[in-house]
Design brief:
It is a single chain. By secondary structure, this protein is an all-alpha fold. It has one domain (2-102). Helix content is 85%, strand content 0%. It is built from 4 helices and no strands. It has helices at 2-24, 27-48, 54-70, 77-102. The two termini are 15 Å apart. InterPro entries: TMEM14 (IPR005349), TMEM14_sf (IPR044890). Keywords: Membrane, Transmembrane, Transmembrane helix. Pfam families: Tmemb_14. The chain crosses the membrane at residues 30-47. Belongs to the TMEM14 family.
């Protein structure tokens, strides 16, 4: 079930990066969105296949999303939403890692 969140975040971040490029011509948005999308997609695959480091890589992708948007949080609503999404998904994946370590 956790892989669905990672794949959904991959789609959202990839789409967001593409929209930033289309609307404003921002190559940084395109590159960042596609990089974050690839990170979430690969972690989703690892989680789905029950492979090692799936949750950890999803946590790292969440940290990447948060770090890339937190500096622009005052600019508009979109960076605020991206920061909230990164923090929320990071908290979720940190919880899943804790569950795994505790044997649940």
């Amino acid at each position: 079930m956790s892989h669905h969140l990672a794949f959904s975040l991959a789609g959202l971040t990839g789409l967001g990066g593409a929209m930033g490029f289309i609307k404003k011509g921002s190559k940084a948005s395109l590159f960042g969105g596609l990089l974050t999308s690839a990170a979430f997609a690969s972690s989703g695959y690892l989680i789905q296949q029950n492979m090692d480091y799936g949750f950890e890589s999803a946590l790292a992708a969440s940290a990447l999303l948060t770090a890339s948007s937190i500096g622009r949080v005052r600019a508009s609503a979109l960076p605020k939403m991206l920061t909230a999404l990164g923090l929320t998904s990071g908290a979720y994946y940190a919880y899943k890692i804790k569950q795994f370590q505790d044997g649940f």
